[in-house]
Amino acid sequence: MNKTALSLLLAASLNATAATINLTPAQQAALAIGVAPVVAADQAVSRPYPAQIRVPNDQLRVVAAPEAGVIEALLVAEGEPVKAGQPLARILSPGLLVLQRDYLEALTGRALAADAQSRDRKLLDEGIIAERRFLESRAAYQQQAAMVAQRRQALALAGMDEAGLKLLEKDRRMSGSLLVRAPLDGVVLEQLATAGQRVDSAAPLYQVGRLSPLWVEVHVPLEAAQRVNPGDPVQLVREGLSGKVITVGRMVHSADQGVLVRAELADGNTGLRPGQFVEVQLAGGSAGALRVPAAAVLRNAGKAYVFVKVADGFEPMAVEVLATEGDTALLRGELPAGAEVVVSGTAAVKATWLGGGE
To answer: What DSSP letter does each residue of 77-104 carry, written as one string?
Structure first.
């Protein structure tokens, strides 16, 4: 501190009382005293936190090979938009031939069982056979019908659509080529296989996701997470986008001692990409709490104080510090939102206050 500032500080201390530190505008300027407004915590935003963009779980699918075989062709690539039902890949699968053969055999068995049941029905009506024989033929037909339904479902799971099933029933011509189709409208996020590769049943081929809406996930310090609630607004710092908190985790992650907060962003955020790192600010706060720059808080005799600007200087006010988040502090005290507190030159004001109180 230079001699001029020191002399101003000594002069100001003569006018300081335990309640008020009298400093003229000239003295405040010479001591480089700056002020900042007090903000209600429920109207303020947190410091920026690193976060990551995610695709909601119910909008994400891993497209797998329904049967073992060799990938004949991959029909789309990473980054391409796709529609539900659109072919994504073609697989040559011996297993598909087996499924078709079994289905055709089941169809033949059902037809024979239907004829036997019809014949025995007539014979029973004419009194030629016992009812037991008719019941046996009816049971055999029902068993064959169930077998047809089961093998038809197996073909559907293997990727054969209704038109393909009807064509197989009509022409009885089998094919080992299997089309894998998109399960939803979306974008190919990742290609997980290559053409010519031999794959097992359920081997992943693509990851497909619908990109609207999106999630943003952030690890928030435990103290700050306790003040976040579902429905609180979230702001993306650089992108100028907003969303709302949908879940607040119950577990503290060991890597960073943070709590997972997940927010859903509004529809139409097409500029964001899954996996992208962003910075977010949470706009939640504790009821009745206030937010000030951390530099405004000082300690004396084990208590926390801020210097509140008044007409002829500053008044010290005791506060309760709830948490410190980076360069801001969350506190509770008898000062209104909008009041101004000292944030620079605090040491000089404190020295004046303590000197004047002696």
So the answer is: -TT-EE-TT-EEEEEE-HHHHHHHHHHH
pLDDT the model gives residue 76: 97
Q: In this structure, is the dihedral angle defined by the CA atoms of residues 229, 230, 232 and 238, taken in order, positive or negative? A: positive
Q: What total of structural domains would you count in the chain? A: 4
Task: Quote the pLDDT of residue 311.
Answer: 84
* Most confident stretch, 130-134, 318-322, 347-351: 130-134
Q: pTM here?
A: 0.64
* 104 vs 108: CA distance, rounded Å: 6
In which order are the strands placed within the sheet that holds 177-181? Answer: 177-181, 87-92, 69-74, 198-199
Q: Among 307, 283, 276, which Cα is nearest to 293's? A: 307
Decide if pLDDT at 21 tops 70.
yes
**What amino acid occupies position 102?**
D
Structural domain harbouring 181 = 65-93+176-210
Q: Does one domain contain both 169 and 109?
A: yes
Task: Give CA–CA dist 44/338, Å, rounded.
Answer: 12
Q: Are 293 and 168 contained in the same domain? A: no
180: Cα separation from own chain's centroid: 28
